[in-house]
């Protein structure tokens, strides 16, 4: 959790502008009230300055969440500590100055900086009020059941509110469903938050004993940050490695160039239309990019043969889903996608391959891949036939609905094509530029 968003839109939608304006006005009101309540002392200046530096330094080293739409940092620990340690309005100024200082040095558009600062101020104003209402009010932190309950509440509430506020701004900027944005960005970061925030409570305890002893928490925070960064990088590198293999396969054959990319887009459209969860949509879309990876283990003559394959050649060719699954299952982070690749040539009536599964025995993602793959194959030129029109290909899908294809998936694909239209035909795409 860090509250930092990487919005891509340059022209801000009206609802996003209203949301940002609302946060800015709320922040202005909170800061005004905080200034009026401030009784400035040297000690106050010192703690705000020190905690501002802690927050800014932590914010300067964000971890980009896999979708690239938001980030997390360990600054939550220092903000939580300030809420536990200091009375209103000091935690508000720590949040305001610390986040602002961190944003100064980061390369973001102005509206992203505005959101990050105002969101954090509003969020921590809520948490300060909640902690004051639940805790026992004693100057010694975590000295009672009420204090512990207050800390647990603000840790949980902070995570929930932060994830909602950031997901909302991304959803408004991209026009994606809120639930999908939340799952993309926050389904995997709960552990990071639930480890960083309690370290903030430990920081507060040590600070109360002696500010110098609180340095002992820096090392655990550094370990937590690096562990999560390693996990995030591993997930990203796994996907990049797999997609590089898929691109290498597409590059082997100009007649199927970009085939897997188009299949992935069609599969994503179908999955979204069926209201599947964001994580499942991403798994299906990635599996679609990799669905033909097993062809890397198939003899080239089968791929380029200008006529139909013989029975023995067909039998050998049909090994490619199994080969693809065997390659991708070596990547533990892609286990579910591996299953979809293995099953994408199964038929709804049980007459497909490699295992003759039927109906609901075939994973839904694999049934989606089957429709997307077949449509793009039919609308692409191949060595042994000319491409069909979009209307002809769609009619073929409808005719084979209930036998080769899942009727529900075919219907969903029809509806997405009616709403969005097919992708540009492969033969009508501009050739790539070649540099000398």
| CATH C-level label of the largest domain | Mainly Alpha
Sheet bearing the most strands, described?
Answer: 3 strands, antiparallel
The CATH architecture assignment of the largest domain turns out to be Orthogonal Bundle
Q: Write down the CATH topology of the largest domain.
A: Arp2/3 complex 21 kDa subunit ARPC3
How many strand elements? 3
Strand content: under 5%
What is the rounded Rg? 27 Å
- The helix tally amounts to 18
Count up the domains. 2
Helical fraction: 55-70%
Uncertain segments are: 1-9, 426-436
Shape: elongated
Report the span from N to C terminus. Answer: 47 Å
Q: What string gives the helices and strands in order?
A: EHHEEHHHHHHHHHHHHHHHH
Strands across the major sheet, in which order?
Answer: 1-3-2
Class computed from helices, strands and strand pairing: mainly alpha
Round the mean pLDDT to the nearest integer and report it: 82
């Amino acid at each position: 959790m860090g509250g930092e968003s990487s919005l891509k839109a340059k022209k801000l939608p009206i609802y996003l502008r209203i949301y940002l304006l609302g946060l800015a006005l709320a922040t202005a009101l909170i800061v005004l009230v905080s200034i009026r309540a401030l009784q400035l002392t040297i000690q106050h200046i010192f703690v705000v300055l020190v905690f501002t530096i802690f927050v800014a330094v932590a914010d300067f080293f964000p971890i980009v969440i896999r979708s690239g739409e938001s980030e997390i940092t360990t600054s939550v620990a220092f903000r939580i500590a300030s809420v536990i340690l200091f009375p209103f309005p000091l935690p508000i100024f720590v949040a305001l100055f610390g986040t602002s200082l961190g944003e100064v040095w980061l390369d973001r558009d102005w509206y992203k900086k505005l959101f990050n600062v105002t969101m954090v101020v509003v969020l921590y104003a809520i948490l300060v009020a909640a902690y004051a209402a639940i805790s026992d009010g004693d100057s010694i932190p975590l000295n009672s059941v009420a204090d512990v309950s207050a800390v647990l509440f603000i840790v949980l509430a902070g995570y929930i509110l932060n994830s909602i506020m950031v997901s909302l701004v991304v959803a408004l900027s991209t026009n994606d469903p809120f639930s999908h944005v939340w799952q993309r960005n926050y389904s995997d970061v709960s552990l990071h938050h639930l480890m960083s925030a309690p370290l903030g409570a430990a920081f507060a305890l040590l600070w109360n004993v002696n500010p110098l002893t609180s340095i002992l928490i820096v090392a655990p925070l550094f370990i937590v940050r690096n562990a999560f960064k390693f996990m995030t990088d591993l997930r990203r590198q796994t996907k990049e490695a797999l997609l590089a293999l898929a691109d290498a396969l597409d590059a082997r054959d100009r007649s199927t160039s970009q085939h897997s990319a188009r299949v992935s887009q069609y599969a994503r459209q179908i999955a979204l239309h069926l209201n599947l969860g964001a994580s499942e949509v991403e798994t299906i879309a990635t599996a679609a990019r990799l669905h033909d990876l097993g062809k890397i283990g198939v003899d080239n003559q089968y791929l380029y043969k200008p006529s139909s394959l013989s029975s023995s050649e067909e039998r050998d060719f049909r090994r490619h889903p199994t080969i693809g699954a065997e390659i991708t299952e070596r990547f533990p982070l892609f286990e579910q996608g591996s299953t979809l690749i293995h099953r994408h040539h199964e038929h709804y009536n049980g007459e497909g391959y490699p295992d003759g599964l039927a109906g609901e025995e075939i994973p839904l993602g694999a049934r989606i891949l089957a429709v997307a793959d077949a449509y793009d194959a039919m609308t692409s030129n191949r060595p042994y036939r000319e491409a069909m029109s979009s209307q002809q290909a769609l009619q073929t899908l409808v005719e084979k609905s209930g036998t080769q294809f899942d009727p529900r998936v075919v219907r969903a694909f029809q509806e997405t094509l009616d709403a969005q239209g097919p992708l540009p035909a492969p033969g009508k795409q501009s050739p790539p530029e070649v540099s000398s």
